[in-house]
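Board work, copied verbatim: Sugar ABC transporter permease
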Amino acid sequence: MTAPAVAAPGPGRLARAAAAVATVAVVLVLLYPLLWILASSLRSAGEAATGLSLWPREFTWSNYTAGWSGVNGVGFGAFFRNSTVVAAGAVVGNVVTCLLAAFAFARLRFPLRRFWYAVVIGTLLLPQHVLMVPQYMLFRELGWLNTALPLIVPKLLATDSFFIFLIVQFLRSLPENYDEYARTDGASPLQLFRHVILPLSRPAITATAILTFIWTWNDFFPQLVYLPMVEDSTAPSGLHQYAIAGGLSAPGPMFAMCVLSLLPVLLFFVAFQRLLTSTSTTSGRMAAHLPRPRARR
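↓ predict structure ↓
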């Protein structure tokens, strides 16, 4: 009696296994710097700058209390509070103004609409550092230096053309039969925006809020330029102030504050990622079942 032959794995199964191995390898490579920072935040002063191991020989939890004390009497709690104010203002400004601007470009009809939309998209080609000098001179004349106004007020004027483009593309993917239905019933553009566009735009709003918060929280250069004083520093510029004040000689506390600076971004993304997924599914079902407008008589 012969043993049953074992079928050799097919090329499809081998390809899936290779893809899984490659994915795991890429994930490990991407996670290694984060894990190394976490491990370095728990190393002693003598061990912090040696080796690439992910396991400290001695867990030094006092690095977190030492780093939280901050720079020149200003604790990292103040830096986190300043970052929260700037990020919250940027999120509110971008969500409100970019959504209104995108609604105008995607749903309203006015002269030179395509031209002005092209101008807005064209600003994406301008490097941030090219605009920094004239913006700095303008804010200096307004007396806004050493305040959070240069980081918040521009967001209230729909200056982030990327999010205008993002929301316009989302609104164009929605069928226009609800617009026609609302206009047939005599709805004004403001009523159309409030009762039709706004409820369907939750996925775009969520994506705008998530990206704005992450980019603003991590935005180092403008915060360093407009908020040079230690007491006004945000988390990224506060880390810079800590490093130049001697933090490089004791990197453990500095790495500990790096870990704490990453936590708000990670928590914000994890908290709102589910909302983004659920609203995308819900709005897709709503758009697929929108009733057709009533025929005009």
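Confidence is low (pLDDT under 50) at residues 282-297.
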